[in-house]
Design a protein that fits this description.
The structure holds 2 protein chains of 2 kinds. In chain A, about 80% of the residues lie in helices and about 0% in strands. Chain A is an all-alpha fold. Chain A has 2 domains: about 60 residues; about 200 residues, MetI-like (MetI-like fold, Orthogonal Bundle). The radius of gyration of chain A is 25 Å and the shape is elongated. Chain B is mainly α. Helix content of chain B is about 80%, strand content about 0%. In chain B, helix 7 crosses helix 15 and helix 14 runs antiparallel to helix 15. Chain B starts with a helix and ends with a helix. The chains are: A mainly alpha, B mainly alpha.
Chain lengths: ~290, ~375
């Protein structure tokens, strides 16, 4: 009952408030165009009719929530998933390169973290660059990677996955360095008294200690990976994927399509983060962690 | 003379030196270093060998002089190698890369020695902390330069850093105009508005428990969403000018600020709050004198995260439509015209601007949170 009072009621209230604000904003933002339309068509409406008209324009400035929901529902559930207009199809295109990039990025991040923890010279020389690279707008490189790789006939999934890899390995590397260093001095000393080799310390102490850090940074990484895949789709000339859907929508002023694509992207993001979180819980339970 | 004599009995002291020696031998056996019709200059080649061998010979010295000689030897050899490339682009044979690799191993040895040093003086520690990553970055550039020019990689695929540097020097006015448009107009305006809005909302959420309970789960969830996707909508609403980019930046920076500030406001301890209550201080007095200072590290964390997000938002939003100026515009059009060196120049400027932005925020943080253990401790 506490979760109902402390979480569900406040969150739904705020969400309902947002939807209400959205409707009001939609009426006001679409009103000038509707007034213009009515004047040219010599239509006189009552206020109620006018409001209804602003909420059902085909290309509104701000689509009303129900228009977005209808478009999303239609393009997700009613179309064949092989159709070019199906959001499931576009989400799948984006999701596949997100996942490939995420897997590569995580593997690369873990490898770099292991190297940094074991080699002092790598720690002193590479770590500052990893931190500095966080301050750089990496996404700016995305269009160039796509176009340059297209020039050497590498197209499709790989270039987008590369951008996702690039975006997702930083959080994992930084998080894993922290995680692999998280065992306390006491525990390390205990391992020394057992006469454990460096290898044994790594597998029996450092790796288990780093697992919570790994999953926390994987959550960040999977979200970054999705952003990378979406931005990577912008310069490819709008073939397929959520990013291309956004670009096509902005070319043809299909505002409802843009919003529906945004909703699809958000659903994919939420699912990915939830999946990583679930995997983290399962792994931690299997390793004997106490549920908090 | 003693130096040269000791060369005849070069005795490496580390595996890097052994491998470097083997690589040099292989390079000599595989002579020449450039394919026909390019000429392989024996004079320069022997200088490269001299530098490398002196460096290997110095490996046995005590750490400090050894690191110094290794540094000079490895980088002198590399400089000559790069100079030899002039006019011989695309003609490099395996010995060239073997010598590069030998020099790199010696530089690695140099870094390993430097990392092992533990000087007592504070300025020396700071110097070491800067020099070691600087050498690493230098080698990234050296390899980039050597491979692109040595293998003759087409310019449109990957221009060498020297060409990018020349392009930056030649097009300073264009770059300045782009920075003015994207960073000073769009990113900074959006950053200021987004952070301010997030901060005010966080104070409101702190004042009203219901609002906090409702907003925090939403704020946490939004941080995982690809917010950058609102860019086309903002371009439609606010036009092609900098206002639409600023709007994207506002949305991107709002939620990190909100979430971090609310977390920070909960950071002050019970004891301190009780103390404030015994002083009969009001909500606002407690807020300004205790809880906001205690939240400062969290707020600055959000400001740092947002400095990067602001640049990303402003640049990516320009992919959806701009006036004919701006970093994102320049990147997307110059990619289309295959002027890849201009793209790299923009990226270098963006990287520099991002680092400076972050650095300025970090400096403010040090000044404002001088009392925090993470700053006090060094």
């Amino acid at each position: 009952m506490d979760s109902l009072r402390d979480k569900i009621i406040p969150v739904t209230t705020i969400l309902l408030g947002l939807v209400a604000v959205w409707y009001v904003a939609a009426v006001f933002m679409n009103a000038p165009f509707q007034r213009d339309l009515d004047r040219r068509g010599n239509v006189t409406r009552t206020t109620l009719e006018f409001v209804q008209a602003t909420l059902s324009q085909p290309k509104p400035t701000l689509p009303a929530p129900h228009q977005v929901a209808a478009n999303f529902f239609e393009n997700t559930f009613l179309r064949k998933i092989t159709s070019n207009r199906s959001l499931v199809y576009h989400s799948w295109v984006t999701l596949s390169s997100t996942l490939v990039g995420f897997l590569f990025g995580t593997a690369l991040g873990i490898a770099i973290a292991v190297g940094i923890v074991h080699l002092k010279s790598l720690d002193r020389s590479l770590m500052p660059w990893i931190i500095a690279s966080q301050t750089i707008p990496i996404l700016a490189i995305a269009p160039m990677i796509i176009v340059v790789l297209a020039a050497v006939n590498v197209t499709g999934l790989i270039p987008k996955a590369l951008i996702s890899t690039y975006l997702s390995f930083f959080p994992v590397a930084v998080g894993m360095v922290k995680g692999l260093r998280s065992p306390e001095i006491m525990h390390l000393d205990l391992m020394h008294t057992y006469n454990a080799s460096a290898n044994q310390i790594f597998w029996k102490l450092r790796v288990p200690a780093s697992v919570p850090f790994l999953f926390a940074s994987m959550k960040v990484a999977v979200a970054a990976s999705l952003v990378g895949a979406i931005v990577g789709e912008l310069p490819t000339g709008a073939v397929a994927g959520i990013g291309s859907k956004l670009l096509a929508g902005s070319y043809y002023s299909q505002t409802i399509d843009i919003w529906a694509a945004l909703v699809a992207g958000s659903v994919v993001a939420a699912l990915l983060v939830a999946l990583v979180g679930l995997a983290g819980k399962i792994v931690e339970r299997a390793m004997g962690a106490q549920p908090a | 003379m003693m130096e040269l004599l000791s060369l005849s009995t070069v005795t490496p002291k580390s595996w890097q030196s052994y491998v470097a020696l083997a690589l040099i031998l292989a390079a000599v056996l595989l002579w020449p270093i450039f394919a026909e019709p390019a000429t392989s200059d024996i004079g320069s080649f022997s200088f490269v060998l001299l530098f490398l061998l002196v460096a290997i010979g110095a490996d046995g010295f005590p750490p400090k002089p050894a690191a110094g000689v290794l540094f000079v030897g490895a980088h002198g050899a590399v400089l000559i190698l790069l100079a030899m490339l002039l006019g011989n682009e695309g003609a490099a044979r395996p010995p060239f890369y073997l010598l590069m690799a030998a020099a790199w191993l010696l530089a690695w040895r140099c870094i390993a020695l430097l990392s092992g040093l533990q000087p007592a003086a504070r300025w020396a520690q700071i110097l070491l902390r800067l020099v070691i990553p600087a050498i690493f970055g230098l080698w990234l550039l050296i390899f980039w330069e050597a491979i692109t020019r040595g293998a003759g990689i087409p310019f449109i695929l990957l221009p060498p850093p020297s060409a990018v540097g020349a392009r930056i020097a030649n097009s300073l006015p264009i770059l300045a105009a782009d920075v003015q448009q994207t960073i000073f107009k769009a990113a900074l305006a959006g950053y200021a508005m987004g952070c301010a809005a997030g901060f005010v909302t966080a104070i409101l959420a702190d004042r009203f428990l219901f609002l906090r309970r409702g907003l925090m789960p939403i704020g946490n969830m939004v941080s995982a969403l690809p917010i950058i996707g609102v860019a086309p909508i903002m371009v439609m609403w606010f036009g092609f000018g900098w206002e639409s980019k600023a709007a994207v930046v506002v949305i991107m920076t709002f939620f990190p600020m909100l979430v971090n500030t609310v977390a920070g406001l909960a950071a002050s301890g019970h004891m301190e709050r009780d103390l404030m209550r015994t002083y009969a201080s009001s909500y606002w007095q407690t807020l300004f004198k205790l809880r906001l200072p205690a939240a400062a590290p969290f707020i600055f964390n959000a400001l740092k995260i947002n400095s990067t997000l602001a640049l990303i938002g402003a640049i990516v939003a320009e992919f959806f439509g701009t006036p004919v100026v701006g970093m994102g515009f320049r990147i997307s059009t110059e990619v289309g015209r295959m002027n890849i060196d201009m793209v790299w120049a923009e990226i270098a400027v963006a990287a520099l601007a991002g680092s400076v932005f972050y650095g300025v925020v970090a400096l403010f943080e040090r000044a404002a949170t001088f009392w925090h253990p993470s700053v006090r401790g060094g």
